[in-house]
Structure formats: structure tokens, C-alpha cells
């Protein structure tokens, strides 16, 4: 049966660990001759390169959110060339330009897949990245929260907080679960809403939103949301 590959574009520093971290039949990254490709069982039923591209983009969006959560200095990756590998090893490469023009070229030859350590194998236990990706695929609220967390702004952190808060039934439940304390949450919210504290990065422009005596820093906000998000995700496994 033909196989679809989505070549990944990004910094090698961010790509080179994926073959070891994502290696399940459902979602895996393989390395071939210095390039990294996304494979997924979800591509098996697709017949058009455009369909593979759109599904690949959705998976990559999830991967970016999960990777940013597990490794703070991660830079986003994106899709590049879509490749259809025929049963005889021939390839049909699809390159999508901004003008929506599709260029197709055929390359023959057998597919050689080499992982980062020189072999191809499936991990016996899922990696943290793989486990988190699986939860995000099962729960849209988790995928949304991770996507907002990835953006690393006051707006996005507040949105991630709201998703979690609404999902579990309110701020009081976050506190009851021991995921954070009331004073830290209130200081974060007050800071996020205050233009006096954050300037144009604040959620509101009105002067009625006063800053706390000690505004939360972006570093503190990131750490608090990451802790709450991590414990919330764990509660769904």
C-alpha cells in the first residue's frame, strides 16, 4: 500500500530528538538522509496530497504545543514537502506554494528509513512527548490549552487558564486540587487585566483594572500555568 510522508521544516536542534520521542504506529517521526518526516496511521485512508497536508498541519500544531510544554526553548516546526511513496519505491513529491500551485516530480528508489541512532524500532514505552500528544488528541480542550500555552504571551496564558478553569468547574476546584493557591491566581489575573502593569499586553485598556502591589512577572505566570496545566493533563490520563 502506498505511504504518505510529510517532511518537517525547522531547526535541526528541535527536530533531531523526535525519532526517539515519537515512534508509535499512530504518530512517528523518522529520519532519512538528514531530513525528518512525519508519518501517521491517519494518512493511510487519504488519497490526495492536499488532504495529507491539512491533516499533517493539524498534527504538527499539536506537536508544537506539546513540545513547547515539555521543552521551553523549542521553536515551532512546520510542514514542507508531501511525499507519496509507491509500493515499488517510486516517489511523488508535492510542493505547495503560496499561490496554491502544485509542483510534482517523480523520484525512483527504495525508501531507506534511519532513526537518529541508526536503527528503526518502536519504543516499548511511550515518551513523555508521545503520552502528552495522545492526551491532546483525545481531548480538544487539552489541545487548545497547549496551543495557547505555546504562544507564550499574557493573552495566551490567560486563555489557557480559562480553559482549565471552565473544564474542571471553576477556580475553587484548582485550589481544592492543590494545583495552585488563591493568592497566586488572583495576582496573576489582576496583573493580566491591568494596563498599568503590562501596557498594551494587558487584557483590558480600562483604568479601572488596577495592578496588584507586586505584579506577577511573565516568568512567574508561565511557571504557574505550566504547573496547573501539567496537573490537569495528568488528571485526564
How would you portray this structure in words?
The protein has helices at residues 12-15, 18-21, 49-70, 128-138, 140-151, 154-168, 171-176, 182-193, 195-198, 218-235, and strands at 3-9, 27-32, 35-40, 78-85, 91-96, 102-107. It has 237 residues and is an alpha+beta fold. The longest helix has 22 residues, at 49-70. The protein is 46% helix and 16% strand. The two termini are 34 Å apart. Helix 3 crosses helix 5. It folds into 2 domains: 3-134, Palm domain of DNA polymerase (Alpha-Beta Complex); 139-235, no CATH class. It has a 6-stranded antiparallel β-sheet with strand order 2-3-1-4-5-6. The protein contains 10 helices and 6 strands, in the order βααββαβββααααααα.
Outline the secondary-structure elements.
Layout: E1 3-9, H1 12-15, H2 18-21, E2 27-32, E3 35-40, H3 49-70, E4 78-85, E5 91-96, E6 102-107, H4 128-138, H5 140-151, H6 154-168, H7 171-176, H8 182-193, H9 195-198, H10 218-235
Antiparallel strand pairs: 1-3, 1-4, 2-3, 4-5, 5-6
Low-confidence stretches: 98-125
Instruction: Determine the number of helices (DSSP H or I, runs of at least 4 residues).
Output: 10
Question: How many β-strand runs?
Answer: 6
Q: How would you describe the shape?
A: elongated
**What is the CATH C-level name of the largest domain?**
Alpha Beta
Number of domains: 2
Average of pLDDT: 84
| CATH architecture descriptor name of the largest domain | Alpha-Beta Complex
Termini distance?
34 Å
CATH topology of the largest domain: the name is: Palm domain of DNA polymerase
Which structural category fits the helices and strands?
A: alpha+beta
Profile the largest sheet: 6 strands, antiparallel
Q: Could you give the order of strands across the largest sheet?
A: 2-3-1-4-5-6
Order of helices and strands: EHHEEHEEEHHHHHHH
Rg over CA atoms, rounded to whole Å, is 21 Å
- Helix fraction by DSSP (H/I, runs of at least 4): 40-55%
Amino acid at each position: 500500500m502506498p505511504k504518505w510522508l510529510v517532511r518537517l521544516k525547522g531547526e535541526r536542534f528541535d527536530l533531531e530528538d523526535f525519532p526517539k520521542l515519537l515512534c508509535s504506529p499512530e504518530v512517528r517521526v523518522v529520519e532519512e538522509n538528514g531530513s525528518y518526516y512525519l508519518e501517521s496511521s491517519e494518512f493511510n485512508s487519504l488519497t490526495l496530497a492536499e488532504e495529507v497536508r491539512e491533516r499533517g498541519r493539524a498534527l504538527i500544531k499539536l506537536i508544537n504545543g506539546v513540545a513547547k510544554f515539555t521543552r521551553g526553548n523549542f521553536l515551532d516546526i512546520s510542514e514542507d514537502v508531501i511525499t507519496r511513496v509507491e509500493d515499488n519505491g517510486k516517489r511523488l513529491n508535492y510542493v505547495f506554494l503560496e499561490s496554491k500551485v502544485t509542483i510534482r516530480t517523480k523520484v525512483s528508489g527504495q525508501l531507506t528509513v534511519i532513526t537518529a541512532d541508526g536503527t528503526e524500532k518502536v519504543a516499548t514505552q511511550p515518551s513523555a512527548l508521545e503520552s502528552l500528544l495522545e492526551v491532546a488528541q483525545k481531548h480538544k480542550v487539552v489541545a487548545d490549552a497547549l496551543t495557547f500555552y505555546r504562544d507564550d504571551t499574557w493573552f495566551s496564558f490567560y486563555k489557557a487558564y480559562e480553559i482549565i478553569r471552565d473544564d474542571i468547574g471553576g477556580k475553587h476546584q484548582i485550589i481544592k486540587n492543590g494545583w495552585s493557591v488563591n493568592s497566586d491566581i488572583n495576582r496573576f489575573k489582576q496583573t493580566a487585566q491591568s494596563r498599568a502593569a503590562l501596557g498594551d499586553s494587558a487584557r483590558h485598556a480600562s483604568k479601572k483594572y488596577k495592578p496588584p502591589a507586586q505584579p506577577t512577572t511573565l516568568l512567574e505566570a508561565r511557571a504557574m500555568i505550566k504547573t496547573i496545566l501539567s496537573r490537569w493533563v495528568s488528571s485526564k490520563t
